[in-house]
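Take a protein:
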Amino acid sequence: MGAYRDRTLVLYASSGGSTKDAAEFIAARLRAQGVLADVRGVDEVRTPDGYDAVVLGSAVHNRSLLPAAEHFVLRNADTLRTMPVWLFSLGIGPSLRGPVGGRLRDVVPPRIAQLCELIGPRDYHAFPGVVPSAGAPLVARLVLWICGGRYGDLRDWPAIEAWTRHIAEYLHGVVAA
Protein backbone atom coordinates (compact mmCIF):
# COMPACT_ATOMS: atom_id res chain seq x y z
CA MET A 1 0.00 0.00 0.00
CA GLY A 2 1.16 3.51 -0.67
CA ALA A 3 1.85 5.86 2.18
CA TYR A 4 -0.99 8.02 3.40
CA ARG A 5 0.22 11.59 3.49
CA ASP A 6 -2.35 13.16 5.78
CA ARG A 7 -2.37 12.85 9.55
CA THR A 8 -4.72 10.89 11.77
CA LEU A 9 -5.10 11.70 15.46
CA VAL A 10 -5.81 8.73 17.71
CA LEU A 11 -7.14 10.07 21.01
CA TYR A 12 -8.04 8.22 24.17
CA ALA A 13 -9.62 8.78 27.57
CA SER A 14 -8.65 5.98 29.92
CA SER A 15 -9.28 5.35 33.59
CA GLY A 16 -7.16 2.27 34.16
CA GLY A 17 -4.94 2.19 31.09
CA SER A 18 -6.77 -0.38 28.94
CA THR A 19 -8.20 2.23 26.55
CA LYS A 20 -4.76 3.83 26.25
CA ASP A 21 -3.36 0.40 25.34
CA ALA A 22 -6.08 -0.02 22.71
CA ALA A 23 -5.42 3.45 21.25
CA GLU A 24 -1.69 2.72 21.02
CA PHE A 25 -2.50 -0.62 19.36
CA ILE A 26 -4.79 1.14 16.84
CA ALA A 27 -2.18 3.80 16.06
CA ALA A 28 0.52 1.14 15.58
CA ARG A 29 -1.72 -0.86 13.23
CA LEU A 30 -2.61 2.28 11.26
CA ARG A 31 1.09 3.12 10.90
CA ALA A 32 1.81 -0.43 9.75
CA GLN A 33 -0.75 0.17 6.99
CA GLY A 34 0.86 3.41 5.83
CA VAL A 35 -1.23 5.90 7.81
CA LEU A 36 0.54 8.72 9.65
CA ALA A 37 -1.01 8.36 13.10
CA ASP A 38 -0.29 10.26 16.31
CA VAL A 39 -1.65 8.93 19.59
CA ARG A 40 -2.45 11.28 22.47
CA GLY A 41 -4.48 11.43 25.64
CA VAL A 42 -7.59 13.52 25.16
CA ASP A 43 -6.38 15.86 27.92
CA GLU A 44 -3.22 16.59 25.92
CA VAL A 45 -5.01 17.98 22.86
CA ARG A 46 -7.29 20.99 22.79
CA THR A 47 -8.45 20.67 19.15
CA PRO A 48 -7.96 18.32 16.20
CA ASP A 49 -6.47 21.18 14.16
CA GLY A 50 -3.70 20.01 11.85
CA TYR A 51 -5.21 16.54 11.49
CA ASP A 52 -7.31 15.14 8.68
CA ALA A 53 -9.03 12.33 10.60
CA VAL A 54 -9.69 11.42 14.23
CA VAL A 55 -10.09 8.10 16.01
CA LEU A 56 -11.38 8.74 19.54
CA GLY A 57 -11.65 6.08 22.21
CA SER A 58 -12.89 6.12 25.77
CA ALA A 59 -13.58 3.81 28.62
CA VAL A 60 -17.29 3.59 29.43
CA HIS A 61 -18.36 4.30 33.00
CA ASN A 62 -22.00 4.58 34.00
CA ARG A 63 -23.08 4.09 30.37
CA SER A 64 -21.18 7.20 29.21
CA LEU A 65 -17.82 8.07 27.78
CA LEU A 66 -15.41 9.45 30.33
CA PRO A 67 -15.98 13.19 30.96
CA ALA A 68 -12.71 14.22 29.25
CA ALA A 69 -13.74 12.45 26.02
CA GLU A 70 -17.23 13.89 26.14
CA HIS A 71 -15.87 17.40 26.73
CA PHE A 72 -13.49 17.02 23.78
CA VAL A 73 -16.39 16.02 21.51
CA LEU A 74 -18.63 18.85 22.71
CA ARG A 75 -15.86 21.46 22.48
CA ASN A 76 -14.90 20.38 18.95
CA ALA A 77 -18.25 19.24 17.54
CA ASP A 78 -18.26 21.72 14.64
CA THR A 79 -14.81 20.62 13.48
CA LEU A 80 -15.43 16.91 14.04
CA ARG A 81 -18.58 17.04 11.89
CA THR A 82 -16.44 18.12 8.92
CA MET A 83 -13.83 15.34 9.03
CA PRO A 84 -13.69 11.56 9.10
CA VAL A 85 -14.13 10.46 12.72
CA TRP A 86 -14.31 7.02 14.28
CA LEU A 87 -15.37 6.46 17.88
CA PHE A 88 -14.68 3.42 19.98
CA SER A 89 -15.23 2.50 23.58
CA LEU A 90 -14.09 -0.20 25.94
CA GLY A 91 -16.47 -1.39 28.59
CA ILE A 92 -18.40 -4.24 30.03
CA GLY A 93 -21.43 -4.05 27.71
CA PRO A 94 -20.05 -5.91 24.68
CA SER A 95 -18.92 -8.84 26.84
CA LEU A 96 -22.31 -9.56 28.40
CA ARG A 97 -23.92 -12.95 27.73
CA GLY A 98 -27.01 -14.92 28.57
CA PRO A 99 -30.68 -13.94 28.39
CA VAL A 100 -30.26 -10.57 30.13
CA GLY A 101 -26.78 -9.68 28.93
CA GLY A 102 -27.54 -10.70 25.36
CA ARG A 103 -30.27 -8.07 25.21
CA LEU A 104 -28.02 -5.38 26.65
CA ARG A 105 -24.81 -6.25 24.78
CA ASP A 106 -25.51 -4.34 21.57
CA VAL A 107 -27.43 -1.40 23.01
CA VAL A 108 -25.65 1.93 22.50
CA PRO A 109 -26.08 3.90 25.73
CA PRO A 110 -28.26 7.01 25.18
CA ARG A 111 -25.55 9.56 26.02
CA ILE A 112 -23.09 7.93 23.60
CA ALA A 113 -25.82 7.81 20.93
CA GLN A 114 -26.37 11.56 21.42
CA LEU A 115 -22.68 12.28 20.91
CA CYS A 116 -22.68 10.14 17.77
CA GLU A 117 -25.69 12.01 16.47
CA LEU A 118 -23.97 15.32 17.22
CA ILE A 119 -20.79 14.64 15.21
CA GLY A 120 -21.82 11.85 12.82
CA PRO A 121 -18.80 9.55 13.06
CA ARG A 122 -18.09 7.12 10.22
CA ASP A 123 -18.46 4.39 12.83
CA TYR A 124 -18.88 3.82 16.55
CA HIS A 125 -17.75 0.47 17.88
CA ALA A 126 -17.96 -0.79 21.45
CA PHE A 127 -15.34 -3.36 22.40
CA PRO A 128 -15.12 -5.43 25.57
CA GLY A 129 -12.71 -3.92 28.06
CA VAL A 130 -10.99 -4.88 31.26
CA VAL A 131 -13.31 -5.64 34.16
CA PRO A 132 -11.38 -5.65 37.43
CA SER A 133 -12.70 -7.79 40.26
CA ALA A 134 -10.81 -6.08 43.07
CA GLY A 135 -12.96 -3.79 45.16
CA ALA A 136 -16.23 -4.43 43.32
CA PRO A 137 -19.16 -3.92 45.69
CA LEU A 138 -21.57 -6.79 46.23
CA VAL A 139 -24.38 -5.10 44.27
CA ALA A 140 -22.08 -4.59 41.27
CA ARG A 141 -20.96 -8.22 41.40
CA LEU A 142 -24.60 -9.39 41.51
CA VAL A 143 -25.58 -7.22 38.55
CA LEU A 144 -22.58 -8.47 36.60
CA TRP A 145 -23.52 -12.08 37.38
CA ILE A 146 -27.19 -11.55 36.40
CA CYS A 147 -26.11 -9.97 33.10
CA GLY A 148 -23.72 -12.78 32.24
CA GLY A 149 -20.61 -10.68 32.68
CA ARG A 150 -17.23 -11.81 33.85
CA TYR A 151 -14.03 -10.35 35.21
CA GLY A 152 -10.67 -10.04 33.52
CA ASP A 153 -9.06 -8.61 30.41
CA LEU A 154 -11.78 -9.15 27.84
CA ARG A 155 -10.32 -7.00 25.06
CA ASP A 156 -10.73 -8.62 21.65
CA TRP A 157 -7.50 -7.69 19.88
CA PRO A 158 -8.39 -9.41 16.57
CA ALA A 159 -11.68 -7.45 16.44
CA ILE A 160 -9.88 -4.19 17.20
CA GLU A 161 -7.33 -4.98 14.49
CA ALA A 162 -10.07 -5.75 11.94
CA TRP A 163 -11.86 -2.49 12.79
CA THR A 164 -8.58 -0.60 12.39
CA ARG A 165 -8.00 -2.23 9.00
CA HIS A 166 -11.34 -0.78 7.81
CA ILE A 167 -10.25 2.67 8.95
CA ALA A 168 -6.97 2.38 7.03
CA GLU A 169 -8.80 1.14 3.93
CA TYR A 170 -11.13 4.14 4.08
CA LEU A 171 -8.22 6.56 4.53
CA HIS A 172 -6.32 5.02 1.62
CA GLY A 173 -9.47 5.21 -0.50
CA VAL A 174 -9.85 8.92 0.24
CA VAL A 175 -6.26 9.56 -0.85
CA ALA A 176 -6.66 7.45 -3.98
CA ALA A 177 -9.80 9.39 -4.94
Q: What stands out?
A: Residues 7-176 form a domain with the Rossmann fold fold (CATH 3.40.50.360).
